[in-house]
Write a structure and sequence with these properties.
Length: 278
Amino acid sequence: MSKIHPTAVIDASAELAPSVTVGPYCTIGPRVYLAEDCVLRSHVHITAMTRMGKGNEVHPYAIIGGDPQDLKFHGEPTWLEMGNFNIVREHSTIHRGTGNGGGITRLGSHNLVMGNVHIAHDSIIGNHCIFANNAMLAGHVQIDDHANIGGGAGLHHFVRVGYCGFVGAMSRVSMDVPPFMLVEGSPAAIRGYNHVAMSRLGWNETELEAVKDAYKRVFRAKGGDIESKVEGLLRDYPQSKAVRKIIASVRAIGDGLNGRSLEVARTDNKRAPRALRG
């Protein structure tokens, strides 16, 4: 049976599973769906059009499913979708998508969103990611599985952080982060590879050495074209799954199919309507 505090305000169109807990002074807006065992601690605001899987936990003063902060948004129906067992801590904001950006913001499962994190419209988040306090994601950002975003980091719109990527605290990220790579600085640059996370995830020594070599040859060595370096890695590590992830990312960036490259291909009007411009 749902445990709903008498001070909570819930829209008549919202659907809550029987085992959902809603704490004091929470508000749940229209067309919100909460699956089994979700917990809203207190003062949580789920604005509208949000689908949340089972076992999610949201802490006080978080705002989930808010309107996107985009002047091109005019109230069209857009959504926020969350998977299972995510933790969203205090004062974080996760906004819905925009009509011209795909219409959806999506989080996978088992993510930890620490305090004061902002995840903007049309962002796509994978599984088992960690966002430290005050991390800021602009619109259309993509974060792949097992990525880690350090505290106070700022990610430019359309940036993609690859599988097991690591963004250091206070970094300004304006370019894509390839899988397994560690970036930091302002502007952020590749400083190493994420061997700690790889080890924790069970990647063997052969894969660790392959990624270390790929880091040195592709991102540190000067001279030579990228495709030649990539071909060399394929010859030397034909069985390496990790190297293939890196190569796929590098080639996608080169072909304009990844991250910031997608910004160039935008067909929407990037400016605000004339009436809203100063």
